Amino acid sequence: MRHPPLSVPMVAVAHGSRDPRAAATVAALLGAVRARRPDVPVHAAFLDHAPPAPGRVLDGLARDGADEAVVLPLLLTAAYHSKTDLPGVLNRVRARHPRLGLRTAGTLGPHPLLMAALEHRLADAGVEPGDPDTAVVLVSAGSSDAAANATVARLAREWRSRGWRDVVPAYASAAGPKPGEAVAALLGAGAPRVAVASYFLAPGHFADKVRAEAVAAGAAAVSPVLGAAPQVADLIVRRYAEALRTGRAASAGRRGDGR
């Protein structure tokens, strides 16, 4: 049986957590990605709290003779990690391996596939997507980056149009309202039922905290984290392809300019 030639390696970089469930969830998600693109060598890396670090993975690829790689942030919004931490890591890798071409994919969010993944996970929790009697609290980790929080708020506004009674944002840290406050406010405004949509890639401290606070405030359901939802795996494959197309277009443009 002939196998297709290997494509440009993907280094998928997650936030990282001391909670072992997080790394296991990332492994399951990347397993779904490999099933979709068996020709692509897919490597996991973590910015904090868990090995391997992205720099170490890229060092290994360079030693093994790779001449390029796609670095794909497994991050739901563009904030400090994608704007500062990861570029710093990649600059150091470029200094060590100037012949290794690095292409950075966009963060996972915002994207309509993430909205579909959120509805998939709410359905897993017994919530019918677009139920007009259900108000939804969309909860993210929260960030000191106001633009990242605004992205979550915009996603909530867009999601409201899909039939829900209401959709409001909440944040586990760094911003308000907190999930329990948002649940209580919706119930106080007359919502017959409030569900919480967990806008987290993997389980850990924040996801556990959100579940406890939301249930204590009266939420009827709290969705699981996005994890290996099929829409997330599809989005990773799409971001990888976009990074390759963008890099090739840039290279073609430089050749056309005589550079």
Number of helices: 8
Multimeric state: single chain
- What's the mean pLDDT score? 92
Topology pattern, helix = H, strand = E: EHEHEHEHEHEHEHEH
Proportion of residues in β-strands = 15-25%
CATH architecture group name of the largest domain? 3-Layer(aba) Sandwich
Could you give the distance between the termini?
42 Å
- Regions with little confidence, pLDDT below 50 for 5+ residues: 249-259
Radius of gyration: 20 Å
Description:
The protein is of the alpha/beta class and 259 residues long. It folds into 2 domains: 10-108 and 229-256, Rossmann fold (3-Layer(aba) Sandwich); 112-222, Rossmann fold (3-Layer(aba) Sandwich), CATH 3.40.50.1400. 47% of the residues lie in helices and 16% in strands. It has 8 helices and 8 strands, in the order βαβαβαβαβαβαβαβα. The strands form 2 sheets. A 4-stranded parallel β-sheet has the order 2-1-3-4, with helices on both faces. A 4-stranded parallel β-sheet has the order 6-5-7-8, with helices on both faces. Helix 3 links the parallel strand 3 (68-73) and strand 4 (101-104). Helix 1 (20-36) packs across helix 8, helix 2 packs parallel to helix 3 (80-96) and helix 4 packs antiparallel against helix 8.
How would you summarize the topology of this molecule?
Elements: E1 10-14, H1 20-36, E2 42-46, H2 54-63, E3 68-73, H3 80-96, E4 101-104, H4 112-124, E5 134-140, H5 146-160, E6 166-171, H6 179-188, E7 193-198, H7 205-217, E8 221-222, H8 230-256
Parallel strand pairs: 1-2, 1-3, 3-4, 5-6, 5-7, 7-8
Helix pairs in contact: 1-8, 2-3, 4-8, 6-7
